[in-house]
Specification:
This protein is of the alpha/beta class and 357 residues long. The chain has 13 helices and eleven strands. The strands form two sheets. The protein has an eight-stranded mixed sheet with strand order 6-5-1-7-8-9-10-11, with helices on both faces. It has a three-stranded mixed sheet with strand order 3-2-4. Strand 10 and strand 11 form a beta hairpin. It is globular, with a radius of gyration of 21 Å.
């Protein structure tokens, strides 16, 4: 990309932030885009990464790196304006916030270059609500068997512990009542009848394996890994931050394995096991995987669909052709064995709330 395209990328990501209740980030990205066009420190920092191929990646890496510095106590002036660090940005503070942000970019360019080289790690816990819905659908249709959870693009593997989270909505509640992760108001309006029935029939599930892959997995029990995860939660989204804190607590109690591997190579090694239900799932991952590799993923999914042992495939991904004038949304797709693919629900990119398609 040219630097004009990089600036445009920041402007477009600013629009996405504004659509998802992150006006502070939207303002900072627009100012950063202007700084790039003016030859400021944001342009100097991002110039050597202009060939990053995936739209939206550079803005998220830049914001995540700066946020990590705030959370680590290395940007106290900027922390005054970040709710995640106990700060606030009142009307009229926008210029001061931008000046502090720009100063961090200028002073901490060496640290930020490390963040610009790594993929974003948005292990969004709220998406577990949709994944659990799909899991209950699979168990209802395929039988109450011990479950093997297999996740593509698992990041730190937080959602491999999704059965230990509490999902709540009027007329529906599922998961441990004492879970530190609570996903309230999970559905817009009443949850679907099939989900209420499945939750009542299967109040608990037996998960015998939790296995995922990621090109650069994080260890949620390691302080640096936890900081990275926290840094990618937008500062204004304090409820998301609270869910993440609870998920980090669960991760310390419930083991899961995330191996360093690409999605296709990892999936090639998965063999369904008789007497268990293998559930392959992913959420907002496909856009980060090259099309050629995802074609191999599709081929492996077809192989698994024809297995004699039961297999379910669940995907929670953005609309491929969504209208750019409306808020982003995702859809939950489910395929059981070699049956047809069904659309079970739609929802917010961060998972809450969901609604019927």
């Amino acid at each position: 990309m040219s630097m004009d395209q990089v600036a445009q990328d920041l402007d477009e990501e600013a629009d996405a932030c504004a659509q998802m209740a992150a006006d502070g980030y939207a303002d900072l990205l627009r100012r950063a885009a202007a700084d790039i066009r003016a030859g400021g420190p944001c342009g100097t920092l991002l110039k050597e990464y202009a060939d990053t191929p995936t739209t939206g990646v550079l803005p998220l890496r830049l914001l995540g790196g700066v946020h990590a510095l705030v959370l680590a106590g290395r940007a106290p002036e900027l922390a005054r304006y970040y709710p995640s660090a106990g700060g606030t940005c009142r009307p009229g503070d926008e210029d001061a916030r931008w000046a502090a942000f720009r100063a961090v970019v200028d002073a901490e360019s060496a640290t930020l270059r490390g963040w610009l080289r790594r993929p974003p790690q948005t292990n969004e816990v709220g998406r577990a609500s949709l994944l659990i819905a799909g899991l209950l659908h699979a168990v209802t249709e395929l039988g109450d068997l011990p479950v093997r959870l297999v996740e593509l693009g698992a990041s730190a593997g937080l959602n491999l512990r999704a059965d230990r989270f509490r999902v709540e909505s009027p007329g529906f509640a599922w998961g441990p009542v004492d879970s530190p992760v609570r996903l309230p108001d999970a559905w817009r309006g009443a949850p679907p009848d099939w989900l209420r029935a499945a939750g009542a029939a299967y109040p608990e599930l037996t998960v015998v394996e939790r296995l995922g892959c990621d090109p650069r997995p994080l260890d949620p029990t390691d302080p640096d890994g936890a900081l990275t995860l926290r840094a990618y939660v937008w500062p204004e989204h304090t409820e998301r931050a609270a869910r993440l804190a609870g998920a980090l607590e669960v991760a310390g109690q419930v083991p899961a394995t995330v191996v360093t591997a690409g999605a296709a190579d990892f999936l090639a090694g998965i063999r369904p096991t008789p007497g268990t239900l293998t559930v392959v799932w992913h959420s907002v991952v496909q856009q980060y995987v090259p099309a050629q590799e995802w074609a191999r993923v599709d081929a492996e999914l077809e192989r698994l669909a024809g297995a004699e042992a039961p297999v379910a495939y669940l995907a929670y991904e953005p609309y491929p052709d969504r209208d750019p004038t409306r808020s982003p949304r995702c859809r939950l797709l489910a395929r059981l064995g070699d049956g047809p693919t069904r659309r079970l629900a739609e929802g917010h990119p961060h998972g809450l709330p969901a609604w019927l398609p």
